[in-house]
Design a protein that fits this description.
Blueprint (H helix, E strand, L loop, with lengths): L38 H11 L2 E5 L3 E7 L8 E6 L3 E8 L18 E8 L10 E5 L2 E7 L16
Antiparallel strand pairs: 1-2, 2-7, 3-4, 4-5, 6-7
Length: about 160
């Protein structure tokens, strides 16, 4: 496995050249670590593992994030700096009992934060967010693109 992101390969799409993504690439996100990890590593994993889909429809930009186990009160959706959509929250770690023996810990915990620079046609004052069965959906309506009036010119000759 290469530590350099694949620009043309078949892996998941990287955000290296995406002008709208403000994510930081984590070169260690695909490494499986079976030993317990520190809080800092878990926090980095939580940030890197919060996957978000972004699609554009004729009417809106739609963001969908899988946030299993989180309540809507634990997630924050904000517009900052005028055109940056920020989705953040925190997954708390399960309370540990001293008599428990952990064999594997794969579910991430800690804070997560994702940021996306919205295009000029986004109506940032009309953003709506909803949470259903652990899936956050953020809808950012688009301004209607005004097409210039085209008047035919008669060719003489």
């Amino acid at each position: 496995m290469s530590l350099i992101p694949s620009f043309f390969g078949t892996g998941r799409r990287t955000n290296v050249f995406d002008p709208f993504s403000l994510d930081v690439w984590d070169p260690f996100q695909d490494f499986a670590i079976s030993a317990p990890r520190s809080d800092v590593t878990n926090e980095t994993a939580a940030i890197a593992n919060t996957r978000i889909d972004w699609k554009e429809t004729p009417e809106a930009h739609v963001f969908k994030a899988d946030l299993p186990g989180l309540k809507k009160e634990e997630v924050k959706v904000e517009i900052e700096e005028g055109r940056v959509l920020q989705i953040s929250g925190e997954r708390t770690r399960e309370k540990e009992d001293k008599s428990d023996t952990w064999h594997r810990m794969e579910r991430s915990s800690g804070r997560f934060l994702r940021r996306f620079r919205l295009p000029e046609n986004a109506k940032v004052e009309q953003v709506k967010a909803s949470m259903d069965n652990g899936v956050l959906t953020v809808t950012v309506p688009k301004e209607e693109v005004k097409r210039p009036d085209v008047k035919p010119i008669q060719i003489t000759g």
